[in-house]
Sequence to fold (256 residues):
Amino acid sequence: MRSGGRVVCSIAAGSARPDPPRRFGVREPVSVPYRIPGELRLQLERALAEGVPADPLAHAFQVAEVMGILHQAFEAAGFRVVLVGGGAIEIHAPGIYRSGDLDLGITQLWEARAQESEVFVQLGFERIGRHWRQQGLLVEVPTAHVSDPTELVNVRGSVFRVVAKEALLRDRIVGYKHWGVTAYGDQAIRMLSAFGNELDWSWLRSELDRERSGDALEALLRIQAEAETGSVDLAARLREELDRLKQRPSPPSSGA
Fold:
């Protein structure tokens, strides 16, 4: 309407508002959900097609193949993935141990292009309690950050990151002494035999001193030497040394 020679426009409540002026030649950004490369899901399904092997050595190689696929999928989406726990033992010492699931440390980088859960879902996993499951494979993410040293490994063409062997051995030795888990002592002895001179002994001893577990390492080395020179009741010796460790005062921490 006109009012005093001026043009006055009014918009009634609830009526449609005029469209904003169009900017010709300028394309508005469109948010597109990130999609992982489709072939990665097919590769994972093929890797798991025959189930999860019971044989420790065959299982270790399947873990490596699966980790190579997970590494590619998460890295492309902006995540850093590290294999920790029992699965990492399988990679460093194939055949001495078989884990029941895969434990991962997944860190989202600043340029992450998707949510962690989205990557799992696109790979065909479903959430079951604290695990992600794809066929017979169970994956857990107990930590978002791995502070221990890690290694980038290549196993039969599968490239992925795994926590350092010294960190795994430290955790088993500490668990043997402070938690009283003799199975951890058994695994530690097998790892000591498998790793041999590949260990960074300086780093390992420093970490064990900090955890007041240097004496547990010496006890396990004694059992290892006995086992290599003759027949030993390993379970009995582990219990015997554990009882001895509990009776003596813990050595002072190097960090004290």
